[in-house]
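Following up on my earlier thread - several people asked me to post the actual chain instead of describing it. Fair enough. Here it is, all 357 residues.
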Amino acid sequence: MLARQMLLERASMPAFDAIGHVLGLQAQAPLPPYIALWSRLARFHADELSQLVESRAVVRMAAMRGTVFAMTAADAALLRPFVQPLLSRDLETNPQHREGLVDLDRAALVAAVRALLAERPLSQAELRPLLAERFPDRPPAALAHAARGLLPLVQVPPRGLWRRSGQPRLAVFDDWTGRPLDDAPSPDAIVWRYLAAYGPATPADAQAWCGLTGLREVFERLRPRLQVFRTETGAEVFDLPDAPRPDPGTPAPVRILAPYDNVLFAHRDRTRVVADEYRKAMATPNGLAPLTVLVDGTVAAVAHAEEDGQAATLDVRPFVRLPVRVRDRVEAEGRRLLRFRFPDAQSVEVRTGEPSS
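Reply from S.P.:
Thanks for posting it. Predicted structure:
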């Protein structure tokens, strides 16, 4: 998986191709897709992704697991309808909004939202009172939540632009891109691409990645075309027959991953990347995910970057004591990240602490 995620060796490919290869980048906040590409590409410049967002070749919208992803427009047209059952189910089960949506005329809501967003992109805060005028007996927040689940809503620029992002304003995907959604996305083709980017994997892994259920039958259909292995615990995992499988002794360099990086959430068995005992340590008081540091292919530390005046710092908190040679590599990679993240900083410093226990 590290090889396919371009984390063994940074790849020489355009950002657009990298985003397509990994089936989108998690983008709950504006910054993570930029860090994710920096971690993976040899010559990535942040403006490259901003230009893709401004040109509408890449869009930011709710997709896998109901979270926001930055995807190529072509992949968004495929993946959004693929995960629509997840988003529709949320309207029935979401404890905060489900009562306000009982017996709602969903077709009327969709038509109203389309009409409003055809005039100009609107934020959720702007959309709520306008929907309340049309559906006065419904909670405005529930209506806005339903709009997000029923319609493919894109977060338009400046949201998601490098160092000049704004609050999310929404447009309907087909109006924004001029591209219709795929009315019959192929689960087999999507699972094939998932394995190309995240395999070897189990059906449960693929389901954890997208948030859907029922993918085992897809794997069974594909079984004659796939390579099947057994893990050390006896679990059956599937892979593409010609996918790269480097020697287990291949060294994995230090990498610093974006908050919410794809590799942290793309499998049910997350121990391939982060040990169970460290997952709680990755949480922060405000609920935001930290940067994570891979050492030999697994998470060994969390980190936080900030700029104070003209000085940029990266505070690294390791889970275990790092050997001096590893610590040196972490700090070298950290300095590279700071120069990317804060290009105007006059000085950069990486501070590596000691394990808390």
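The first strand starts at residue 25 and ends at 26. That should answer part of your original question.
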